[in-house]
Design goal:
CATH superfamily of the largest domain in chain A: N-utilization substance G protein NusG, insert domain
Oligomer: heterodimer
Order of helices and strands of chain B: HHHHHH
Structural class of chain A: alpha+beta
Mean pLDDT of chain B: 90
Distance between the termini of chain B: 38 Å
Low-confidence stretches of chain B: none
Largest interface: A-B, 29 and 26 residues
CATH architecture of chain B: Orthogonal Bundle
Shape of chain A: elongated
CATH architecture of the largest domain in chain A: Sandwich
Chain lengths: ~130, ~180
Amino acid sequence: MLTIGKVIFKPADILILFAASILTLWLYSIFWFSANQQGEAEILRVQFADNPPLEYTLSEDRTIVLAGKIGDSLIEIKQGKARFIHSACRNQFCVFHGWLTVAGDSTACLPNRISISLKSALSDYDAIAGSQ
Amino acid sequence: MKLHFTTTHQDHRIALLAALAITIHIIESAFPSPLPGVKPGLANVVTLFTFIRYGWHSALQVSLLRVIISSLVLGTFLSPTFLLSLSGALLSLVSLIVIQLPFNQSSFHRHQPSALGYAVIASISHMSGQFLVAWYFFIPHPGLFQLLPIFITFAVILGIVSGIITQLLINQIQQRKL
């Protein structure tokens, strides 16, 4: 038994604390440190305004031009990675985000209503596309 | 016509404890939080105390009264906040009941965890319940799970704090023979 001040800890408490710390560490290990938990990135998914999502394979290099409300946005696919290379918006957050490399990576250009994300063959459709 | 209620001593006790929990809950909601969803959860000290002293029946009533009445006062009744609060409260109580099950046998009773152990269980399951409801109903995106370890870390730390507070409370009350 362990006492801190007037509080007595019983063996069951110590067991619970131990289990809680194991649980916490385990959660960190699955959600933060396991590489490629979603599989290899294979598909670039582009959600543009109200259109149905477009999908491009990452194995072919190409440049996608999307004419949005405020101007053109250019998305580049190269060597299995994707990025925004040009945007008409003021803040350029999407361009500064740089390359998307692993499945699950995503970035967006809100002024032009574009969001892009990488998918693996394993990952199914997430719910964002379905929500209005 | 006059309405008559016969109230028992237990009803009075539950009303008192619920009032206490509601007050703490409302005061707590006035403080800004560093992370949405992370609160000290001091109102759960009351629930936990009730659970340990008077059993899960009373704790369930106190907990439901707290969630419903404080949401009515704060104006969040039936809103997402209310649903999160309710799911957390219910899941934490269910897991407390489950944890206590093996200790209900008299030979094992003295080995049951103190308030600290119960508090950690309650706060982890409270957080998980809220998190799952938030993920399932409001933000169904797998990326949300990256936040789960942080939330659980906070839950463990705040659970330890509220467990110590509850145990001190129980010690005090035992000394004064209330």
